[in-house]
Design a protein that fits this description.
The structure is a homodimer. Chain A is of the alpha+beta class. Helices cover about 40% and strands about 20% of the residues of chain A. Chain A folds into two domains: about 1-225 and about 375-385, Ribosomal Protein S5, domain 2 (2-Layer Sandwich); about 230-375, Alpha-Beta Plaits (2-Layer Sandwich), CATH 3.30.70.890. The N and C termini of chain A lie close together (about 10 Å). Chains A, B: Keywords: ATP-binding, Cytoplasm, Kinase, Lipid biosynthesis, Lipid metabolism, Magnesium, Metal-binding, Nucleotide-binding, Steroid biosynthesis, Steroid metabolism, Sterol biosynthesis, Sterol metabolism, Transferase.
Chain lengths: ~400, ~400
């Protein structure tokens, strides 16, 4: 039997940066996924019992003899999958040694921390069983769409799906969701993985990927909500790498220099985030009000973008995207840290496919990468595949 | 003897649109001028006594027999140049008839109201003396740089300079300024001219053009101040015509739809305008602090631009200018109504001429028109030229 999990990426609909200064922010899942497939090795299938990890998008494959992994985790006797725990300093050291031995090529060294997270989650949840794990993703890496969180969530979900802590119907056809308590467990394990990758993650990305839908957050408190509407976004990846820490620090410095003005800017963002959550949750009975809702969301995005620019986190490539989409009267805003990264453009329901194609062609001719994504769908899901 | 007057254009440094909703705005003069030359005809120089108006930039020339003008203003016996008065409805009708007879070509019909203002100011201040008035300007028309106000101010100044209400040394070489009381009189007459051109002008443009320097305004109250620094701006005319009324209405509508967020946006602009006036008035003893001051001004401009975008008054051409100047790390903001019009880019003192040339070349290759202007110089000035 093969267990498959898919976990969605995320976008920040409103409130990035301002959330650091106490404003509300709103994140949502998108229907672009990271997929994890897990298949335990049958006793006869391998000469040496090993754990294999296949990263399809990076065209990398790793394999560890189970005995080596067991040596790296000496204190683990029985896996405690029901109790998410952090990787200790000693354990992190052992894992780092295992990963170093892989000699990952320099150009793909950014994946090393993901491999470490994999080893920690796998061993902690499944112990030392030989298996093959295959990863593939529709999400660009390191572009602020929550690819690492989706990886950790899908991995934790696949691993937990075959433990006693989860009761799913293995004969169900197609994708199936976890129960609430099980999602909580997946989310907590994924957060432990995110800590290995990012050091101090906010926990937003893994929560959105695990639970899906829309989450507003303010001062560290998350509020989950369900959108009453289905929005479509064009996501443009400028492919410009960002230094999130430097961008966050830049906003704080600007705040120190212009305290009064920036306080008002952050308050304006807070109002926008609140209005957005209200708008997305209100029932929309007919097409006319769908259009009205979309106009409102577009206007709030445009306003939020202006405020982000006044915080100084825009970038020439972001301006290029804005200018291009403005020509087609489409509302856009950066999503995440800014300074490059991704830009969201609302695609209204009634917008013709021809226009969408034109916009995408123009953006791609500037060297950008475009995705179309639905906003606010399900979180992580599982599928069991039985070989016939 | 020829009397020459020159009156500066203006830019809005901060607060446009937000000022309509109670925020502070800051305007300043620029060293781009409209010139008016006035020469009374000597009795022998014309067969028929006439008033001639020459608009150099439009390549138009008009002439009226003095008798026709006298007929249009039947109630005027003696000119009351010391008492600025509004053009009455009947008088406006007579003037309109005079202007209609000129058969101004369709493409230049926008100048008609300026000709009307000319006829009113000339007759009210100088009565019915035959003369030749020549107008030329460094300011693009209808681009938000206060070209009509500069025209009215320069015209009123030239006309008043040769009345008893003004005492100037006619033998002074070069440009000379008016006294305070005389400036007040020039400014009031210019405002009457602006009313003929614009219907309901705010009075900011003519005040900046008359008094020069920097003027902050809030809720209809003007505060004149002197900058302690000399800033240089690159002014880019996008050549896209705007509908100021529609733009102002658009912001008000957005305010009604998103009252909380927009109130914070306007408050942020108010803080920016106040900080800007404080910064511009503070003494800058050395080059280091000039650079610091320029960085502060640039940052405030960038913040203001973001807030203007959140009000929805940007335009694709403005975005193009922003994107171009951002590449060179130069701060820009739209000035005036937005939706096209002009964009300001701060040129720091230490910026190399090569970079300036590059930026200008790139902007002009996009079809824009560039000017370099000093900020906050003198207001209207007079020069007497004696033919040798």
């Amino acid at each position: 039997m093969e267990v498959k999990a898919r976990a969605p990426g995320k976008i920040i609909l409103a409130g990035e940066h301002a959330v650091v200064h106490g404003s509300t922010a709103v994140a949502s899942s998108i229907d672009l996924y990271t997929y994890v497939s897990l298949r335990f090795s049958t006793p006869s299938s391998d000469n040496v019992e090993s754990l294999r990890l296949q990263l399809n998008d990076a065209a990398l494959e790793f394999s560890w003899p189970i005995s080596r992994i067991r040596d790296a985790f000496p204190e683990s006797v029985a896996p405690l999958f029901s109790k998410p725990t952090s990787c200790s300093v000693e354990c992190a050291r052992s894992i780092a040694a295992l990963v170093e031995d892989l000699n990952i090529p320099e150009a793909k060294i950014g994946l090393a921390s993901g491999v470490s997270a994999f080893l920690w989650l796998y061993s902690s949840i499944q112990g030392f069983k030989p298996a093959t794990v295959v990863i593939s993703s529709e999400l660009p890496l390191g572009s602020g769409l929550g690819s690492s969180a989706a990886f950790c969530v899908a991995l934790a979900a696949a691993l937990l799906a075959v433990t006693d802590s989860v009761s799913l119907d293995v004969n169900h056809q197609g994708w199936v969701s976890f129960g609430e308590k099980e999602l909580d467990l997946v989310n907590k394990w994924a957060f432990e993985g995110e800590k290995i990758i990012h050091g101090k993650p906010s926990g937003i990305d893994n929560s959105v990927s695990a639970y899906g839908n829309i989450i507003s957050f303010k001062s560290g408190n998350l509020t989950r909500m369900k959108a009453n509407t289905s929005l479509k976004m064009l996501i443009t990846n400028t492919k410009v790498g960002r230094n999130t820490k430097a961008l966050v620090a830049g906003v704080s410095e600007r705040m120190m220099r212009h305290q009064d003005a920036m306080a008002f800017v952050f308050s304006a963002v807070d109002s926008i985030s609140k209005e957005l959550t209200t708008t997305l949750q209100s029932p929309t009975p007919d097409e006319l009000s769908v259009t009205e809702m979309e106009e409102k969301v577009g206007e709030l995005m445009e306003m939020n973008q202006g405020l982000l620019q006044s915080m100084g986190v825009s970038h020439a490539t972001i301006e290029t995207v804005l200018r291009t989409t403005l020509k087609y009267k489409l509302a856009s805003k950066l999503t995440g840290a800014g300074g490059g990264g991704c830009v969201l453009t609302l695609l209204p329901t009634l917008l013709s496919g021809t226009v969408v194609d034109k916009v995408i062609a123009e953006l791609e001719s500037s060297g950008f990468q475009c995705f179309i994504a639905g906003v606010g769908g399900n979180g992580v899901e599982i599928s069991f595949e039985h070989s016939s």
